Amino acid sequence: MTTPYPAGGQSDADPHAWPASSYVSYGGERLLPIHGPEFSANPGATYARLRTLGPIAPVELDNGVWGYVTTTYRAALHLLRNTPDRFSKDPNNWDALRNGQIPPSTPVLGMMRPRDNALWLDGIPHSRLRQSIADSLALVDTHALTATVTRVADALIDKFASLGRCDLVADYAEPLPLHVVIDMFGSPPDVARRILFGLAKLFDAAEDADEANGELEAACLELIHLKRREPAADVTSWILAHPTGITDAEMVQQLILLVAAGTTPCTGMIANTLKLLTDDERFSGSVFDGVHSVSQAIDEVLWEDPPIANYSPLYARTPETYEGVQLQTGVPIMVSFAAANSDPALAAHAHRRAGNQAHLAFSAGVHGCPVPAPDLGRIIIETALERILDRLPDIELACPSAQLLRRPGTFSSCWLSLPVTYPAVAPTPDRPPAPAAVPSATSHFGATPWIPST
Question: What is the model's pTM?
Fold first, then answer.
């Protein structure tokens, strides 16, 4: 492998001065990994090192898997805005995958394998499937969605309100989006559990990935058959009825994309924003006295700590050079939303980020999130945050923030747990019982969430 450092040398800051333990060896070259505990503990340090190598740098995505990653805001926009003309989303362009060189046990395979859904297609096939998603999501009643999130949030809070302690990730941020999305897609509880469990197995047990994928697709197909027989006012029925005439096989892959996309990123946003609200002196307490709003805290997280840090792999259609970096065809180029948003070139405008939608947390270009998706996600996140802050206004971390751990992995940037304490309060009387437990997809996915982009 020839590592494509910028012309004129690797960088002004000699990477060989960095600790040898920071590197992995691949094909005789030394690459920085964007996976593993060291990376997850301080990803910002890795992004800073990678920027010294250029706007796009070679990295190890996982053990035995290499690619590129963008390190600047400008490079990320260049790739996203030139898709699909110069860069393709189709994983069939991945040389190492076609040649059988990707370890079957790697979690990146589940994240980057070809699927016939809007995420991985280019051109007219992509536009057709994307339109069915956008039009169907636009039919969601936002008032009803707010009511659903409120109901689910209150039921979950009632389960731990009287205890005086909880884990805001396991007890709240993880289960809430799962129950809300299940409601949006009109899935019966038993089918929903199989879909979520199938997703979890697919990414948590690589040795039987094919079996897990078959189980997942079978559960999705069962929901599709149900909605073809008995359509209702839900997203599944609306996509099936869309004029594009989506087939059952296409719909299976759409469901896999949408259910996962609607849960993990919302969990990450709720968790990361709760961490900010309870631990950052700029926000801690301020949302209660009106100095800063929950909406401003969400904007801060979208800029500074997006839950999907690195994703949207792209493939150069022809060899090209971008700002001195030679890009090979057949090699995935990961877009780093986290590195883009934290680009020092944007630092001068950091004070203007409240309400600023120029961040790349929702991607950009033709594969950016369809317009209704960010708005619906924001309703879920903002309502969930407001409910727990209203019900438990005196939340404090139960441990020093330095002891908190992030979920390890290449793609996500989310807290593994958020143990907190608060003055115990009695559950609200006469409230409907909490929803039945469902498998926590984010707990099983570990380092492998999906980004809500199509």
Answer: 0.83
